[in-house]
Amino acid sequence: MMAGSRVLWVTGAGSGMGRSAAVAAAADRRVALSGRRVDALQETAALVESAGGQALVLPLDARDGDALAHAHDAISSAWGRVDDLVLSAGLNTPRRTWADQSMTEVEAVVATNLTAVVRAVDTVLADLRASGGQVVVISSLSAWRFTPYAGVAYSASKSALRAVCQTLNAQEARHGVRACHLCPGDVDTEFLDLRPTVPDDTARSTMLRPDDVGRAVRFVLESPPWVRVDELVISPVSPA
Question: Residue 240 — pLDDT band, cuts 50, 70, 90?
């Protein structure tokens, strides 16, 4: 591991797309891993190290601004700064319609999918300016094209991420900062357990795999500094 290798911070790194992104990008990188489950993060850390990276486990709830700040301090102390950021923490609820939604759940979904993303970028923006860093926001196909079953809170919060990335690109390009709004279609992860009707094995077999998204994240992160991938949509060939 070279001392000068780039530092990547991944939220939602304990499973699914966040884990796959961390592992796919691990070679010759130092990767800080955040999420709520310590044991899952430790499993991701072992995979990152097997893939040629160095891992730092920093458990937190992405909605907690103080926890994000403390984690950033820990990364800075260990490795100097954050060069790139992958934001994969997400939340949905089975109660997704105007007829059955809970406002407590709506607020939790928006706080996780939108506010936490803005807060994380804000926390490390000075670092990103110094490094010409990239932000990859793992959003959703429902942010790119209306998806009726995604739900009120999820659709609204994910759609807003496009504006987050656009404003970041418009205002911070002069510092070399780049943001990608990454919109995958259905992905076979444990996140599907939050659907009102959980897909069966046949439906899951037609979906994207987390590693498909991981490869896309690596592609974005490895783009040369004069290239920005503003938005990237990935769909399964045969949608479920």
Answer: low
Check pLDDT > 50 for residue 162.
Answer: yes
Largest Cα span, the chain: 55
Tell me, yes or no, whether 83 and 138 share the same domain. no
Distance CA(47)–CA(210), nearest Å, equals: 14
Residue 107 inside a domain? The answer is no
Cα distance between residue 30 and residue 187, in whole Å: 26
CATH number for the domain that contains residue 53:
3.40.50.720
Residue 158 neighbours by CB under 8 Å, 6+ apart? 113, 114, 139, 140, 142, 143, 150
Domain annotation covers residue 129 = no
The residue range of the domain holding 37 is 1-89
Spatial distance between the Cα atoms of 169 and 87, rounded to a whole number of angstroms = 16
- 4 and 58 co-located in one domain: yes
pLDDT at site 1: 43
Q: What is the pLDDT of residues 18-60, one digit of tens each?
A: 999 999 999 989 999 999 999 999 999 999 999 999 999 999 9
**pTM as predicted:** 0.94
Q: What's the number of domains the chain is made of?
A: 2
Shared domain for 85 and 139, answered yes or no, is no
Query: How far is the C-alpha of 88 from the C-alpha of 33, rounded, in Å?
Result: 11
Report the alpha-carbon distance of residue 150 to residue 47 in Å, rounded: 31
Between CA 207 and CA 37 the distance in angstroms is 25
Alpha-carbon gap, residue 18 to 16, rounded angstroms: 6
Higher pLDDT, 19 or 199: 19
Strand 30-34: give its sheet, edge to edge: 54-57, 30-34, 7-11, 84-87, 134-138, 178-184, 231-234
